[in-house]
Amino acid sequence: MPVSVTLPALGESVTEGTVTRWLKKEGDTVAADEPLLEISTDKVDTEIPAPSAGVLIKITVQEDETVAVGAELAVIGDPGEAAPAAAPAAQAPPAEQAAP
Q1: Which of 10, 15, 21, 54 could form a disulfide with 38 if both were Cys (CB 3.0 to 4.6 A apart)?
Q2: Which CATH class is domain 3-77?
């Protein structure tokens, strides 16, 4: 079953962080607590560890992107497992054309 890697609270006043560098890439095997990426905030620079062992099946935040605490950064799963599909975006109804 896929496990989300999320940006943890890194301090009382820290609300967001910027991915500065991925240490692993999609398809890499990771061990529990192995560093996956580096995050920079206005207070601290730190590594985010893998919450479980498995394969990094999806990276959802790219380098230099800033995200809120709790945001999904990546997905770890079993070898050969696919990342869960994102929820489909709501489609806007087709615009009505004005009669000439």
Answers
A1: 21
A2: mainly beta
Q: Give one DSSP letter per residue of 42-84, joined into a string.
A: SS-EEEEEPSSSEEEEEE-S-TT-EEETT-EEEEEE-TTPPPP
Residue type, 68: A
More confident residue, 62 or 95: 62
Task: Give me the sign of the Cα torsion angle 83, 60, 48, 30.
Answer: positive
C-beta separation of 3 from 54 below 8 A: yes
Tokens representing residue 87 in the block: 């929820």
CA-to-CA distance for 58 and 78, rounded, in angstroms? 12
Q: What is the mean pLDDT of residues 9-35?
A: 95
Report the alpha-carbon distance of residue 70 to residue 92 in Å, rounded. Answer: 28
- 55 forms beta bridges with 29, 77
Tokens of 31: 């061990």
